[in-house]
Amino acid sequence: MGSDIFIGVIGFIISIISGTAFIWGPLLLGWFCFFLWHHYVEERFIGGIQWSVLEVHIPREMDKSPLAMQLFITNALYHKSGKGVWETYWQGAVHFWFSLEMASIDGRFHFYIRTPSRLKHLVETQLYAQYPQVRVEEVPDYTEVIPKYRHDGGWYLWGCDFTAEGDDALPIKTFADFGLDKLDLKEQYKIDPLTPTLEFLGSLQRGEQLWIQIIIRFSKKMYPGPHGHKVDFYDHSDMFLDEMLESFKNKKLRDDGSEYMEIRVPDTIKDTVLAIKDKTSELAFDTVIRLVVLGDKNLVSAETFNNTRRASRLLFRQYTNPNENALIRINSTQYDSTWADPTGRLLEKMKHRHLTYYKLRTAFYPPLLMSFDFPAPLTWFFPSYRPKVFVLNTEELATIYHFPGLVSGSPAFKRLESKTAKPPANLPF
Question: Taking the CA of residue 284 as centre, how many other CA atoms within 13 Å lie in the half-sphere pointing to its CB?
Fold first, then answer.
């Protein structure tokens, strides 16, 4: 009896679905075609963008604080604008993104900025505005010398991404926490959180390379909001803070009988509350951080390469704030057990994808087949994942990417011997 009722219900549902297919079928097909079209025109637009890689040469006498980098990021890299229906769905226009990069090649350290070529002049002028002593030079893309990854090729490769461990509203430790926002601080008393990274990258030997890219654009990330709506980063941070303080709210009565809300913040979270408010007082950027470690098999042993890639996982540890946020490793190109990938086929695809993502600076607009997390066994044929996007503000970005002063004396950090200056006005002709 029960089985007959169940079969009858299933049959009724099937008849309803098939009977209304002439309504939902074209709608579903239309939505799918529209999705493919939008992705196609978007990739076509991205494929037409010309890029420039700028290398920044640092002088020996660099005395700028990370505040200069914060102002540069604000003035040169924050390109917030609206896109109309025609631009978005017919031209496939996207918002430009930038990549702040640090690379150690054979133990020599380099600063790079990858920018759309049409904005190269803006980036250069804003760099010189904050750092008049530097020399900016357009160079070939350093990643192109590395061929497509193959398991039996000539290079070892390992990579990973980094993302925020906690909620985007919570900040990591910034240069202000290290006292670098104090302009009167003498050089010998400065503690630069970037120095450990530079020293490690400068310790690499010939045949080793380590690349770090920080891909950014103005924040477009949306979060779940009330009543099914989406909210931006700033509204999300306010909601996160309200939820944190909810248990500390108390209704009070005034003398006239009206009610008001009193919030008594305990001392244990006062610093966190202030940190959240400080983070939302600066411009926010969607961020993807990616790392690649390489070793030439003709020059580097497997043991040396493995030691380097294990140590590289700790390069962002100094930005950890135990009470707030940290940068943690995700999407590593490895399997922790041999049975997870007995043939090595998945690992080869994973490493090839990671290297390709780095070379293309893929972050906010991944290719179609790499836009989904496919379930097994489809991952054998479509090695894909969407890059993890999180939000940092200008102060946090300037902390993990800035030009160090004399406090960083690594011999592998090549500096200009002198400042670049204009000739004197009274020079005889």
Answer: 24
First to last CA, the chain: 109
Cα-based distances in Å from 141 to 51, 69, 103, 120: 10, 23, 12, 15
Tally of CB atoms within 10 A around 357: 24
Phi/psi for 351 (5° steps) reads -70, -40
Other C-beta atoms lying within 10 Å of the C-beta of residue 335: 14
Q: What is the pLDDT of residues 110-139, one digit of tens each?
A: 999 999 999 999 999 999 999 998 999 999
| pLDDT tens digits, one per residue of 282-331 | 999 999 999 999 999 999 999 999 999 999 999 999 999 988 999 999 98
- pTM for this predicted structure: 0.87
Please, are residues 53 and 139 in contact by the beta-carbon 8 Å criterion?
yes
Please state the separation of Cα 307 from the chain's center in Å: 25
Which of 395, 409, 236 is CA-nearest to residue 319? 395
**Sole residue written with tokens 């836009």:** 371
Please, what's the largest Cα pairwise distance for the chain? 109
State how beta strands 415-416 and 51-59 pair. parallel
Residues 344-387 pLDDT 10s: 778 888 899 899 999 999 999 887 766 666 666 666 666 567 78
Question: How far is residue 114's CA from residue 219's CA, in Å, rounded to a whole number?
Answer: 18
